[in-house]
Design brief:
Chain lengths: ~190, ~280
Amino acid sequence: MEKKKLFDFKTRTIVATGLGAALFTVMFMYLKVPTGIPETEIQTAYGVGGFFAALFGPIAGCLIQFIGHALSDSVQYGSVWWSWVIASGIAGLIVGLSYGKLRVEEGIFGKKDIIYFNVMQLIANAIAWIIVAPVLDIVIYSEPVNLVFTQGIVAAISNAISTGVIGTILLVLYSKTRSQKGSLTKESEE
Amino acid sequence: MKTKLFDYIERDNLIFRLSGLTKLICFICMTFSVMFSYDIRYILFVTVLSCVFFWMSELKFKQIKVMLIYVAIFLLLNFILTYLFSPVYGTEIYGTSHELFRFSKRYVVTQEQLLYQITKISKYASMVPMGMLFLLTTNPSEFAASLNRIGVSYKGTYALSLTLRYFPDIIREYNDIALAQQSRGLDFSKKEKFGQRVKNVVAVMVPLILSTLDRIDLISNAMDLRSFGKHKKRTWYVAEPLRKSDYIAIAVGILILAGSLLMTFLVNGGSRFWNPFI
């Protein structure tokens, strides 16, 4: 089997990045699931971001979440909260690293792959929201330390739920639509 | 629902005539200058300047009203949260404590805290007119071209221009699918239970994503057939040569950034904060 290049930026990846980012922006703006706690919504967009990252690799994952988050911020607020946008990009990048081992395009996404994808996304969300976002908040905006870490932990949990649940569901559904290699058997000749 | 990402309506005045490249450079310079500085005097100066630029662009207030409401809510929330979590953070930064009054043992109101929080809010608010100006006066296709001209790889900027191009299409498709699913009885409002609501959202997402994946194949095949990505460089139809006014605007942008650095290193002695309390 041909080995996948993790950081290949071919035409398909570029197009996937462009359309994926548009999709991410739309979802980021409209498809939020309120949890009941004020001002914390589960952003379903991260599920889609994770899905695209697993399908198209780290560069696509990173750019989709970076562009998508930056665009929806600028459309809704007129300016961009850079520390969180960068954290979004990094989360996408790390989830995208799972691309090398997954074979979703070939219709394979079994239990092992589900666990692998979820471990990767947990690491990604933890690094992005509990380390990168708060640290950048402190460096760029001098936000108080305990506030940004609390926000970071809440964001990490809700985004991990979104990526884990929605991303996994989407990957399973998509892998089922792909036909597996060698799924056709030759009928016995008469 | 908004179907256009940027409400770009062309007008003929100085700001609109500037090239996208110029506006991008100025936007970056001004953003950095307020992100870096914690000196409220300088931030207010930049705010006034960006308001002047906004006025020069002849944009209508109506166009930005909704955004302003969002920003105001966001800032108010941030203001309250910051105080709840760290009521004496200002004192830590400035090293002194001038108490005004107190709500309880923990919640003191000090001049330092007020200065810190007001500075922080103005830092964020000052970027809003510039951000909106940039969004509303830049031709979306020219934006990608100008990013390429400041050195971003054209493959990356092409992805961005695809995003801008397909955003309205995806919104339209999202609307169609959501309406179709709602007419079949799927509820997205708070009346539905949490688990069911997630399922309903997925029911909209799946067709949307599958159609997007189809479209990705279609577009990338079309681009491959036209030999996209074969060469290291690419020209842009919308890229415009820089004019005299562009060079002046870029100079102004760089001066603003330099001013922010000067304030920090010369006036405030290397600290990002302006400390009037010592």
